[in-house]
Structure formats: structure tokens, C-alpha cells
């Protein structure tokens, strides 16, 4: 392992034996973009070529942390990541479930898909700005901003007296989730080599193998005890406490690095800060996607809105804004959030597309899964939680296995193709086995198959994109792939919401008969708490069948989206995974070493 942290990508391998502080000092002014000499040149010269990215502060700081911390520092960072992932996954598997009961209590269950989609959009478009902030300010500083969003969201949601206040709090929650997801993924990728990347990335989700089962008991106890408000509110204490471990570790080692001269203080002007984070690009990227997806979501949950002219106008305007992002990033942005060369990089383009389309199916089939299982199979909140998160547990396990296969065979394309095929077969089976007549075993088996395919695909697309860019762009390319996955999830929720809104009332009327009142239809449509007929009655059987009809339409839509995933996976470049950090900065010597190893 090379001792020089700036020499190519050998620094951040999982097998690193340490980084030389002295060597960093010698190379410092070549690597640190914010020292006076560099800053002066930067202001005078033209914009640096996009194909020659400059090392960013966030990357320099994390390398400096490795340098002064050594193995001990790396262990502290992994321990901090473990703490924050435990609370992150516990939050994911409880607060999201309380959303079902919150919307039901506010008699707004029909708005569940809209809330899910809005949260997915905010989480998606929030990732690139937070990734840029972590590059400009540092990883630890970005964590502090993220935890602040979380605390605000918990307070607003737990104390909400109306659906509007709850939804407002959920906006901050979505921003907190965006930041936590991208920062956790970025740091583990900072510390790992190409060959280990898939495994290291999925090691983050080991807590998810336990938290869904624990959280199911927590949710069941909270819902039937202290209530969902207290269930959310307790995270206002738990989240900052667990996050403090990784934050303190990063800040303490950054301070030590400053003391030995590895990090220089820089006073950013408002202009230079906005330039560094590419504020214009962020506004175009986030605004364009918001203008496209928000009207689609609103129209999907009220079918008559498709006939209103403002829906089409906003979608067209959003498309124009997104198209204008390309010339802006090419000719105006000094630190582009989406470098134009990404559009010519097949690995990046296909990773974003695969993540988006794959998550359309996931978002569609999971938006109403919790509600459907409680209605059509009389599941308790605990059992519905088990069913919902079986997919995620299988995904975590298959992701870890995929990472080990990638380490062993130094490749990923055909593993990804196999995952795409499994995913498509899983949706085909789901059409047959996700009904009100399916057994409990069949319901869980479908979730396991889906999770297996999803774990493979999600691992492949992250690694394929990350190894195709230099370390300085690691956070932003990761955020773009995650942008694609969360946008897909949002579109899937919108699809589910459109089907739920457009079909449930009519299916209830068909199965309950012409004598059913509009008031009863409205109550069954908007809430599942205290409105369902008793289990076993003819009326309840009719309601079960209506909900299963709607779920059947949703699974068919998901199957249609699964087909192009197979074809896209076949187009992925079959690149070799070396022991460096990425293929762009891998030195010739490391390539030759990898070549020799591959023949052993």
C-alpha cells in the first residue's frame, strides 16, 4: 500500500496500513484547493477543465483524519458509523410506520401516497446539495446540519395538531434522511477500495437485519400504548446522542490535523461559497425535478386534476429547467454539481436509470403494503411491520453476498444481470401471490425474492458509478445515483396513489353492493382505524377483496417497469475492480498488479 495519500487512489483501501503525515505535509499545497497560493491562481485563471477535478475540502479533510488517526482513527469512525446506522435504521423502520397511523388519525389516509411521494422528492433533491456541502465544509459539519433537520422534524411531527403541521415536519424529516443517507454512504466509500466497496457499503446495513424485528414490537407497543406522537418524539433525544459519536470523532481528528498543518483555515465569501456548492446548478437540478414530479403527484391523487392546464404547464417548465442545466454546467458553473461528462459516462447514466426504474416498482408495491396487509389479512401492526421489512432484510443480506462476490471475481456486470432477472421473476410471482387468498408463507416468500434481486441491483449501481469518477467527485456522483433511486420511489408512490385514488372507491362499491352509502365509502377510503367491519363478516370480506383488487393492479404496473431493468443491466460496462479507490485515478502500476493477481 502506497504511503502517499494523494498518489492515485491507494490511500483509502480497507487494507491500508496507515498514512504518512510527513508525506501529506510535503504534498499539501498540491492537494489542498483552499490554500492562498491555489486560491490566487483559481481566481485569476479560467475555470479548470471538468476532466481535471481539483481535490475538494471534504475529501482532503477525511484524508487528513485518516493521516492523524491511523488505524485507531479508522476504528473510531467505523464505530461511529455503527452507532449512527443503528439509530438510522431504527428510525427508518418505526417513524415511517407511524406515518400510516398519523394520516389515519387526521382522516387523510388517501393523502398517504402524496406524503410518501413528496418525502421521496425532497429526500432525492436534497442529496446533491448536502453532498456538495460535505465537500465544501467537511463531512462532520454536514452531519451537524443533518441532525438539526432531524430534531426540527421530530418536534413538529410529534406536536402537530393538524395534517398540515405534520406534513411540514415531515419535510424536515426528509431532508434529515437525505443527509444521513448520503453522508453514511460517502464516508464508508471514502475509506474503501473498489474491490471492497460493495461489501463495505452493505456492511452499513447490518443493523437492518435486527431493527425491523425489534421495531415491530416497538411499533405494536407504541401504537397500543403511548401513541405514535411519543414514538416519534423520543428520537429527538436518541438521534443526536447516537450521531454525536461520528461527529465528535471527525471534528476531533480534524482539529488534530489542523494543529499539524494538514488543514488550512479559509474564509469563504458568500460568492465563493455559492460557487463552491454550485448554487445555480442545485437550483436548476432540484427545481426542475420538483416542477416535474410535484404536479404528477398531485394529479395522480385526484384524477380530475389531469384536465387542469397548470399540471401540463409545470411539467413542461420543469423539463425546460432540467434541459437548461446542461449548458449551465458546461459553460457557467465553476464547480458543477453534474459535470457534463457524466452524460457521456455509460456507468453513471445506466446506474441512475437502473436505480430509478427499479425503485418505481418498489415504491408502487410498498406504499400501501402495510395498510393492505392489515385490511386484507387482518395483520396486527407488528405483523404488518414484519411483512413490510422482510424485503429490506433480504436486500441487506443479498447486498453483503453481492459485495463478497464482487471482491472474489473483481467484476459486477453479470451479477447485476442475474439480479435484474430475479427482480422481474419476483414481480411476476407477486401478481399471483399477493392477494387476499394468499397464505402468510406466500406473502413473505415474495418479499424475500424481491429483496434478493433488489440487494444485487442496488449494490451494483453504486459501485459502478463510484469507480467511474475521481475521489473528489465521490459524494456528488453517489448523491446522483441516490437521487435516481429516490425519484423512482416517488414515482412509484405516485403510481400507487393514482391507482388507489382512482380504483378503491369503485371496487368498494362493486363488492359492497349498490346499497352502500357514500359516507361509509368515504370512511373506508380515508381511514383504517375504527372503520373496518369485524373480521369474518360478509362486509369485511367485501372490503378485503376491494383492497386486494387495487393491490393487484399495482403489482401489474410494477411488473411492467421490471422488464426494462433486464435490458439496461445488459448494457452495463464490465469493468474490472482493482485495489485502488477508483478507475480514474488508479496508477498504471496498480493496474499491472491487478492484472497479475487476476491470473493467479
From TrEMBL:
Alphabetical list of PROSITE patterns matching this protein: MFS
GO MF term list: siderophore-iron transmembrane transporter activity
Keywords: Ion transport, Iron, Iron transport, Membrane, Transmembrane, Transmembrane helix, Transport
Major facilitator superfamily (MFS) profile domain ranges (all copies): 77-576
Protein's membrane topology: Multi-pass membrane protein
GO CC annotation, single: plasma membrane
UniProt-annotated stretches for the region Disordered: 581-600
Keyword Transmembrane helix found: yes
Gene3D superfamilies the UniProt entry points to: MFS general substrate transporter like domains
Transmembrane segment boundaries: 75-90, 110-130, 142-161, 167-187, 199-218, 230-253, 273-298, 310-328, 348-374, 386-407, 414-431, 443-465, 477-500, 550-572
The protein's name: Putative Siderochrome-iron transporter
Species name: Aspergillus mulundensis
Similarity-based family: Belongs to the major facilitator superfamily.
Compartments where found: Membrane
Predominant cellular place of this UniProt entry's protein: membrane
Amino acid at each position: 500500500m502506497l504511503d502517499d495519500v494523494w498518489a492515485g487512489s491507494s490511500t483509502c483501501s480497507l487494507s491500508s496500513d496507515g498514512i504518512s503525515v510527513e508525506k501529506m505535509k510535503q504534498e499539501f499545497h498540491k492537494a489542498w484547493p483552499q490554500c492562498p497560493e491555489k486560491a490566487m491562481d483559481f481566481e485569476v485563471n479560467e475555470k479548470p477543465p471538468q476532466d481535471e477535478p481539483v481535490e475538494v475540502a471534504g475529501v482532503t479533510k477525511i484524508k487528513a483524519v485518516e493521516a492523524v488517526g491511523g488505524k485507531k482513527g479508522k476504528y473510531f469512525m467505523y464505530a461511529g458509523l455503527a452507532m449512527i446506522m443503528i439509530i438510522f435504521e431504527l428510525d427508518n423502520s418505526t417513524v415511517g410506520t407511524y406515518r400510516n397511523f398519523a394520516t389515519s388519525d387526521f382522516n387523510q389516509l388517501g393523502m398517504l401516497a402524496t406524503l410518501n411521494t413528496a418525502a421521496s422528492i425532497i429526500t432525492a433533491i436534497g442529496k446533491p446539495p448536502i453532498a456538495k456541502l460535505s465537500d465544501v465544509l467537511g463531512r462532520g459539519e454536514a452531519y451537524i446540519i443533518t441532525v438539526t433537520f432531524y430534531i426540527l422534524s421530530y418536534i413538529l411531527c410529534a406536536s402537530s395538531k393538524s395534517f398540515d403541521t405534520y406534513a411540514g415536519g415531515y419535510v424536515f424529516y426528509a431532508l434529515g434522511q437525505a443527509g444521513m443517507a448520503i453522508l453514511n454512504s460517502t464516508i464508508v466509500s471514502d475509506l474503501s477500495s473498489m474491490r471492497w466497496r460493495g461489501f463495505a457499503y452493505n456492511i452499513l446495513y447490518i443493523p437492518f437485519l435486527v431493527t425491523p424485528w425489534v421495531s415491530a414490537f416497538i411499533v405494536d407497543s407504541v401504537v397500543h400504548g403511548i401513541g405514535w406522537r411519543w414514538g416519534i418524539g423520543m428520537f429527538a433525544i436518541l438521534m443526536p446522542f447516537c450521531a454525536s459519536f461520528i461527529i465528535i470523532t471527525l471534528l476531533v481528528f480534524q482539529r488534530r490535523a489542523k494543529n499539524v498543518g494538514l488543514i488550512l483555515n479559509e474564509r469563504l465569501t458568500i460568492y465563493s461559497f455559492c460557487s463552491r456548492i454550485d448554487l445555480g446548478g442545485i437550483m436548476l437540478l432540484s427545481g426542475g425535478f420538483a416542477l416535474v414530479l410535484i404536479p404528477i403527484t398531485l394529479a395522480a391523487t385526484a384524477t380530475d386534476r389531469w384536465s387542469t392546464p397548470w399540471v401540463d404547464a409545470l411539467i413542461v417548465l420543469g423539463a425546460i429547467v432540467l434541459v437548461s442545466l446542461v449548458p449551465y454546467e458546461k459553460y457557467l458553473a465553476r464547480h458543477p454539481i453534474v459535470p457534463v461528462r457524466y452524460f457521456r459516462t455509460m456507468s453513471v447514466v445506466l446506474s441512475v436509470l437502473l436505480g430509478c426504474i427499479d425503485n418505481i416498482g418498489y415504491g408502487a408495491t410498498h406504499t400501501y403494503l402495510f395498510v393492505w396487509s392489515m385490511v386484507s389479512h387482518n395483520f396486527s401492526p407488528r405483523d404488518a411491520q414484519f411483512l413490510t421489512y422482510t424485503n429490506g432484510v433480504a436486500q441487506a443480506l443479498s447486498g453483503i453476498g453481492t459485495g463478497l462476490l464482487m471482491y472474489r471475481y473483481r467484476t459486477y456486470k453479470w451479477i447485476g444481470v442475474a439480479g435484474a432477472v430475479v427482480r422481474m421473476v419476483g414481480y411476476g410471482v407477486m401478481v399471483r401471490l399477493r392477494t387476499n387468498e394468499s397464505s402468510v408463507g406466500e406473502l413473505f416468500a415474495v418479499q424475500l425474492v424481491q429483496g434478493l434481486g433488489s440487494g444485487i441491483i442496488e449494490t451494483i449501481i453504486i459501485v459502478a458509478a463510484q469507480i467511474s469518477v475521481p475521489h473528489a467527485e465521490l459524494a456528488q456522483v453517489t448523491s446522483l445515483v441516490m437521487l435516481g433511486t429516490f425519484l423512482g420511489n416517488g414515482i412509484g408512490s405516485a403510481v400507487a396513489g393514482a391507482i388507489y385514488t382512482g380504483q378503491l372507491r369503485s371496487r368498494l362499491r362493486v363488492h359492497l353492493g349498490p346499497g352502500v352509502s357514500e359516507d361509509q365509502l368515504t370512511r373506508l377510503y380515508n381511514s383504517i382505524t375504527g372503520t373496518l367491519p369485524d373480521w369474518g363478516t360478509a362486509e369485511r370480506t367485501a372490503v378485503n377483496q376491494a383492497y386486494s383488487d387495487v393491490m393487484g393492479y399495482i403489482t401489474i404496473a410494477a411488473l411492467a417497469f421490471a422488464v426494462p431493468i433486464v435490458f439496461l443491466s445488459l448494457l452495463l460496462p464490465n469493468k474490472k475492480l482493482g485495489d485502488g479507490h477508483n478507475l480514474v485515478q488508479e496508477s498504471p502500476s496498480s493496474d499491472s498488479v491487478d492484472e497479475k493477481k487476476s491470473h493467479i
